Amino acid sequence: MRKELDALDSAGASALISPFAIAEAYGALGDADRAMKYLDKSADLRETMVLYLEIDSAFDAIRKDSRFVALERRVGLRE
């Protein structure tokens, strides 16, 4: 799975695939840097799935990352 994701990342396929979906895959792999890259894109595009950050288990491994917490604040999920 990692190989396929990296191929999508380098090919710029996020224009065709939801950035949130790619972020979920990287989050499930525990790759905080790439997950955050795509979560930021998802938030910029105002994808509605971003509102499920708090309950999406794909992000359990990166949930305590300060960038993740900041994103939750940015989209209004934390004060």
Distance between the termini: 35 Å
Number of continuous helical runs: 4
| Percent of residues in beta strands | under 5%
Tally of DSSP β-strands? 0
Rg computed from alpha carbons, rounded to a whole number of angstroms: 12 Å
Low-confidence runs (pLDDT<50, min 5 residues)? none
Which structural class matches the secondary elements? mainly alpha
The ordered H/E elements are HHHH
Largest sheet: none
Overall mean pLDDT stands at 90
Give the overall silhouette.
globular
Helix content: 40-55%
Provide a short characterization of the protein structure:
This protein is mainly alpha-helical.
Characterise the protein shown here.
By secondary structure, the chain is mostly helical. The chain has helices spanning 2-11, 19-28, 32-44, 66-74. Helix 2 (19-28) runs antiparallel to helix 3 (32-44).
Features:
mainly alpha, 4 helices, 79 residues, 53% helix
SSE topology sketch:
Elements: H1 2-11, H2 19-28, H3 32-44, H4 66-74
